[in-house]
Structure prediction request, 317 residues.
Amino acid sequence: MKIEVRVGSDSDLPKIKNSFTTLDNLSIPYSVRILSAHRTPDAMSENARNLVKDGFKVSIGAAGGSAHLPGMTSSETSLPVIALPVKTSFFDGMDSLHSMIQMPPGVPVGCVGSGNAEGAAILAAQIAYLNDPEVRKRICDYRHIPYREIVFKPRVALINSSPSLEKDADASIKLLSSFGVECYKFEWGEKILEDLINKGCVAIIAVNPYPGKPLAGELSMKTDLPVIVVPCSSENSLSIFSDILGTYPLAGQGINRLMNGAIFAAKVLGANDEQVRIKVEEYSKGLAQEVKEKDKILVETGISAYLDKMGMKENGK
Ligand code: RP5
Prediction:
């Protein structure tokens, strides 16, 4: 079994039924668990830590309200975790989505729109079976999109037409290379899909700087290659979520979180390439070590000395 679906409560099950029917229609098996980030944190973490050993390639974490399940799961596994915000009675699931999406640097999830259970299932299938032509053909038939042969290599496309994220784009390419993943840069254009497939890319990171235009969403409707979208903006407007708020099978990242998009891409490829996965695992251990060292210094020196040492002003950075 390659796909796990975990819900925070049994009350989520009827609300994400489309995930199950979609996977059933694709004849793809999956395991379903009730694992709450808040009510059963130990069981939730332990199961997340065992996902790789148990043969899974991807997990869908569905939860509502203060929806920390996918983020906490991602903290405990090198596999990609798809965050499925469950619709709630007060804010139509926007509370769930906002609890999930803006993950801290280094620990990404791929977030779909609230209630987008079908999109989450399709995305999970596309990730788990990226290197399986037979299942890819089934997915393409189901989605009424043309099947294109690929030779699986850890190679991703980065579409970025946004100068404000240029530095992050270069840093992302460097980071991906340290994971053994090649990354080619592209700009948005008519023939983008053809161009990146011709280059041998098998996953796509798309920075979308155009509020209200779901460019990445539209791209995801033409291909079964996993598409990761990074909304990019300096404005406070919900229209920058136009990709994520649709019903597309997209792995949405936090605003301007391009590096997380790159790490999520590495997790997607790592699910299909053990050497990449091990590198991602080592990277996460390094992140944890950094935080532990900072905590040690803080405890030993106190707040003022710590802020001085780190070059941080007392009222912010
Ligand atoms: C979340 O709290 C669950 O994912 C669910 O969406 C919500 C409510 O849970 P119940 O009170 O219905 O069990 O953790």
Observations:
- Residues 8-9, 11-12, 36, 63-65, 86 surround 5-O-phosphono-beta-D-ribofuranose (CB under 6 Å).
- The longest strand covers residues 58-63.
- The domain at 3-278 is CATH 3.40.50.1970 (Rossmann fold).
